[in-house]
Amino acid sequence: MRAITHFIHGNSAPLAGARVADVLNPSTGAVQAQVELANLAHLQKAVDSAREAQPAWAAMNPQRRARVMFRFKELIEQNMDDLAHLLSSEHGKVVADSKGDIQRGLEVVEFACGIPHLLKGEYTEGAGPGIDVYSMRQPLGIVAGITPFNFPAMIPLWMLAPAIACGNAFILKPSERDPSVPVRLAELALEAGLPEGILNVVHGDKEIVDAILDHPQIKAVSFVGSSDIANYVYGRGAQNGKRVQCMGGAKNHGIILPDADMDQAVADIIGAAYGSAGERCMALPVVTPVGEATAEALRAKLVTAIESLRVGISTDPDAHYGPVVTAQHKARIENYIQMAADEGAEIVVDGRGFSLQGYEEGFFLAPTLIDRVTPQMKSYQDEIFGPVLQILRANSFEEALSYPSQHQYGNGVAIFTRNGDYARKFASQVEVGMVGINVPIPVPVAYHSFGGWKRSGFGDLDQYGMDGVRFYTRTKKITQRWPSGGAVVDQSFVIPTMK
Ligand code: NAD
């Protein structure tokens, strides 16, 4: 059985006698490797390595750190095919989608190539007589990232690229379900010229997450995953005096106004609801048509579009989406479909019971469409995270606006309309962190920032963009005085002012 080990100080770092977890191939259902689960002793090795390496890395001028980022970007591009296949083999998403996963992370590496400019501080000459005030951004030291299974390239890169470029050492704790791509990324970073110890990868589960949250040398923790765990990580990390940002789950709505381009909206919603088997925090699992006529037209077109969807193994170039991540997750999704039926919703298309010939043990689910969903249903309130689209009908714009606004999650939302007035009002008033106007998956580009509201985001700084730079640095503010000769030095017991 292939063993997936930790990556510490530039080397594979096996841990004798460690607990292990199975790494599956979701297309076949087979166990393909075992990943070692770290304990505190192993984390300490990663911390010791990071402590040794970080001061020199921080002292290196930012242009030289940027050059490592440029080279890292080139190496990711050169290895795109291999990385995508590796990613698909553990996650299950189709290879083209894995390339998108890597590409969206690569764009954050591109952003980090501009770190000399991004780190520049502020300067005020002559804030008082002979007095100048300036600020500088300094790295925090050792920081850590804990990432989910659904974007094993993009989300580690969201975190590690700005963290490292800012001069920190970064300890990555990737998802134990698809841990190989994160290790491969760390190897490529080393090849790009990153000093040993600046990027360490430790695998594990709750035990190692708790050790990270309690470790006094780790100054900041970035987390992406489900909301209950995000909430827990936020609380425990903050309690220990760390800077913490935690992104959580989601239940994103797509609002369809009567004037929307219905064919375009359906094409967008189908891709956003079922792409990656719905295992995206920016998926669109709820569609809210406004008015009965809109709802009927939408439903008919959705049913037709679903009929043409192809579910396949992750290497099938014609498949629209692949299996879900584990058998347990598949069962959980099926339970939610049953729950929706029991709650009185109408199962229009039932994706349960689907079997792919030759891959009967794979974790496949055909697309499911559920109509007549209401806000009181638990199957609506919870995140399902599978290829399941729910129709929640609304009678007015105001009612449609209220649904995503009142939902416990507030990650993303989209509105489909040709009316700019409604679109502006919606963008302004909706209680959600990321809004798409005729854009189904409004993941902001790398030089903006990513983050949801309510139970989708804990902490005040978002991922990547300038918020990423702010999260991984602290600002030092300097007030300097160089009095010219002959200045009278007064003793003062009054708080200094510049008058
Ligand atoms: P998860 O919460 O199960 O795991 C996330 C990380 O937490 C993993 O590294 C895991 O090892 C660790 N972990 C698991 N259980 C833990 C525990 N009890 N204590 C401490 N750490 C623990 O999430 P997942 O299933 O890997 O990912 C899917 C979830 O992530 C979905 O809810 C999805 O919406 C969310 N997500 C959110 C965003 C976002 O930016 N808001 C992006 C991607 C995924």
TrEMBL record:
<dbReference type="InterPro" id="IPR010061">
    <property type="entry name" value="MeMal-semiAld_DH"/>
</dbReference>
<dbReference type="Pfam" id="PF00171">
    <property type="entry name" value="Aldedh"/>
</dbReference>
<dbReference type="InterPro" id="IPR016163">
    <property type="entry name" value="Ald_DH_C"/>
</dbReference>
<dbReference type="InterPro" id="IPR015590">
    <property type="entry name" value="Aldehyde_DH_dom"/>
</dbReference>
<keyword id="KW-0560">Oxidoreductase</keyword>
<dbReference type="InterPro" id="IPR016162">
    <property type="entry name" value="Ald_DH_N"/>
</dbReference>
<feature type="domain" description="Aldehyde dehydrogenase">
    <location>
        <begin position="21"/>
        <end position="478"/>
    </location>
</feature>
<dbReference type="GO" id="GO:0016491">
    <property type="term" value="F:oxidoreductase activity"/>
</dbReference>
<dbReference type="InterPro" id="IPR016161">
    <property type="entry name" value="Ald_DH/histidinol_DH"/>
</dbReference>
<protein>
    <submittedName>
        <fullName>CoA-acylating methylmalonate-semialdehyde dehydrogenase</fullName>
        <ecNumber>1.2.1.-</ecNumber>
    </submittedName>
</protein>
